[in-house]
């Protein structure tokens, strides 16, 4: 997960999220995480050339949002909004 680890190392938050423009689940996730007392670093894949390819190559997840849990010091791929909600309850 080389590229993902680089993004994770730059983040000093609980979660690393990759989002896209006009994404309802992305907007919901950005409201949900703070409601659970969690911080996040966001990268919008529509604004960073090549980022979508890096994320898909690392996760095989083609839709947004793509969420990584950083709380244990190593980026752990969670999935999307539904998986994050299930994780945090």
Describe this structure in words.
It is built from four helices and four strands. Helix content is 43%, strand content 20%. The mean pLDDT is 95. The chain is globular and about 30 Å long. It is an alpha+beta fold and 89 residues long.
Walk me through the topology:
Elements: H1 2-10, E1 15-19, H2 24-35, E2 40-44, H3 51-59, E3 66-69, E4 76-79, H4 81-88
Parallel strand pairs: 1-2
Antiparallel strand pairs: 1-3, 3-4
Summarize the structure.
The chain is α+β, with helices and mostly antiparallel strands and 89 residues long. It is built from 4 helices and 4 strands.
Overall radius of gyration? 12 Å
Number of domains: 1
Unreliable stretches covering 5 or more consecutive residues? none
**What structural class results from the helix and strand content?**
alpha+beta
Question: What are the main properties of this structure?
Answer:
alpha+beta; Glutaredoxin; four-stranded mixed sheet; globular
């Amino acid at each position: 997960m080389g590229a993902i680890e680089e993004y994770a190392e730059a983040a000093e938050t609980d979660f690393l999220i990759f989002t896209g423009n006009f994404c309802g689940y992305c907007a919901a996730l950005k409201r949900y995480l703070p409601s659970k007392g969690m911080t996040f670093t966001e990268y919008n894949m529509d604004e960073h050339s090549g980022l979508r390819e890096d994320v898909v190559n690392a996760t095989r997840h083609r839709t947004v949002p793509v969420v990584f849990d950083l709380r244990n010091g190593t980026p752990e791929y969670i999935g999307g909004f539904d998986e994050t909600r299930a994780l945090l309850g």
